[in-house]
# Entry
Amino acid sequence: MVVVMKPQASETEIENVIKRAASMGAQTQPICGESHTVIALLGDLTQVQRATFDAMSGVQKTVRIQDPYKLASRATHPERTVIDVNGIRFGGEQVVVMAGPCSVESRDQIIQTAIAVKEAGASVLRGGAFKPRTSPYSFQGLGEKGLKYLAEAREVTGLPVISEVMTVEAIDLVAEYVDILQIGARNMQNYALLQAVGKTRRPVMLKRGLSGEIQELLMCAEYILSNGNMQVMLCERGIRTYETATRNTFDLNAIPVLKRASHLPVVADPAHGTGDWELVPPMSLAAVAAGADALILEVHPDPESALSDGDQSLKPERFADLMCSLRKVAEAVDRSIATPTGSVDTAETSDKEVPNTVEKETGVALA
# Structure
């Protein structure tokens, strides 16, 4: 159930509704929109009567929400949520492009890639410091050292940073260095982790699980929202089906379905969705045409030598070509591609060769 306040409702009137709901045993979650405030009532609502709130000063109407995902539902929040990350707005008229390597392999690699993707037009830098891998013997990431390199790349380029957090214990560490917390597909239903990031005030990008249904994704987002963090993005990254021609099946349908069902920004990840760099450009263009609010893409200066996901990584020059095409498609659907802010400070970069630096940092010899 939600209580929709009148546009001119005062803070006192809003507080009175919250107190009345609490007296009936309901939990409350205020949602402040551009025109009015909505108060979501959660928990045991057996003692809650709609007429009680309809008669209160400042209340426009009381609505019972049928969707199990109360806070993520567009019925609760008709206006789309816009998340501001250092001036980059997710969910607005512009499409945000996040780009960078799957894994941070060295200082030079991440800084050089950050400069390249910003010059091509990306607004956010991605990079994994902690990597959940199918094999325990695969490269697992540089950990805190990788986070420090990401933070340094942000200083050089001005790009906000997104990186994955895998455990409750690592949240504070990762949040110290990055601007957006990523919950990976394997952790979509890690409820303890979802609740913990919900208690932060850091934006969260939640990836759809390998076999997760759309409603399950929305219910997982609800765990974050119900713990007070309303800055959640939903990411379609492909699901596991019987098809073997691609790494996963990129569910393009999910983008308009999620946009219809929820007010939260929707991100598309065609790299993991296909597993093939040649398929990333057409699926990126299709995702923007379908209504995606953002893309997250993998870019690596030497994909053949990448320690993870090289097959689905674009070279910087191919990424630059894709950005040109994305601008045309965005314009065709009455949107535009968000432009990065700030300038690049190349004084902090070095002239080391990327492959040699990778071997030095990780101990992994490149073939």
Summary: The longest strand covers residues 94-100. Residues 350-360 have pLDDT under 50 and may be disordered. The chain has two domains: 2-14+22-63, 83-354.
